[in-house]
Amino acid sequence: MKALRAAEQCAWKDNDTLSALTAYELSVRPYYLKNEKDSVLFILNHVRDLYLRYGFRENATRVLSPIISILIDQNKYAEVHELMQIYESESGLFKADGNIMSGREMYYYEKGRYALFENKTDSAVLYFTKLLNAKPFEAGYKGLLQVYEKRNKPDSVAKYATLYAAANDSSYLHVNQNAIHQISAMYDYSRHQKMAEKERAKAEKVKRGRMALWTALIGLIVIAVLLYIWQKRKYKRKILHLLNAYEANQTALSHAKNEMRLMAVDYETNKNGYEEKCTNLMAQIERGKDEKGELENRIDDLESDLQQARFEADELKDQFEADILKKSKEIEDLLRETEMMNEKLMAIDATKMEEDFKKDEAYLVFQDKCSSLQINHAPTEMEWRRLLNAFRKSFVRYHSFVYIKHRLPENQYRLCVLIRLGFSNKQMEFLLKKDADKLYRLKRTANLKMFGKDEATTLIQNLTPYY
Fold this sequence. Notes:
By secondary structure, the chain is mostly helical. 82% of the residues lie in helices and 0% in strands.
């Protein structure tokens, strides 16, 4: 024990972690000799944790073999299965065909014992037979004896009891037991020192590889972040340009419709004037016919005026029809362009834009104010302008429907913005500086203007399809 502790302390001073942990692992041997299995289990679990902490995963896994044996002795089978899976997959002691490396065959004894616990006696026979082939006869015969005791086959029990007794000659064990334990407790420090040097070089190589990998990974992350920021800014510029073009198109469409209405009014006015003029002229002609003798020349003049008036009326009608046709085509083109822009706007990822908007400073200011609900903390006009400016860029379709299409007054538009952002009635009363009755009337007025519903309760439901 003193020699192992001295070796461990020297290894720690030399920063030889593997050798220090190996010496600590070997310190369990005296506790084996004393049959103090709880102490053995504590040290092995502790040294396994240390192996894992310092990156010696295979060493940590190989420590599991004696831990498994002790847990089976203590009938703690619930923990054994998971540890066996780790040992077989991570220890590096198993060949491609699933058999363990030479010199480690005693593990088959533990596999056989666990198979017996699961009542898989055929598997247990297979493992104990493999153990016999490796010539640890005592453990192999002892395992087969347990199998046939479980199967209740007296002949086989008698056979393997005899073989086990022969292999486990009591006088041989009595004479040589101390020697066996002493040999197993010997620690060849030079061999472990070489292993430690090899493991240290391997760990250094892995460390350098990890550093290079982390450097490359950080570089890629920086490039990805810069690329994301550039793409995001480009995307916002594209949205802003599309929104401005859309609003200009809507304005042009509105002007064209207004011009068309004015042309129709002018036409009706002129038409009525010419019809009235024609009626007066016809009346004068009728009166002139009664005075034919005196007014024949006057009638000719009036008829000439009538023809001229009819000609001008026809010209006015033709010009009006041509203008109406031209303006209708212009409106159709604007409507097609508007539809194309609307489809582009519909393709915008509304969820992503909403997530970005809710990180905007203008929105966060309103959230902070709602947390206090103090009247002297209500939003200023400048804060309202910042919020609405950010809102129209992020909620393009909703803004177009509420503000551009329906031209809501400022207070109704602010109400619709707060509804879209999910503020409660209490918060909207505070932000708009209105009591519950005024807020109700404001909702009802907006619902009537946009949807023809003279009620407040269905406003949010009616606005939802345009989110």
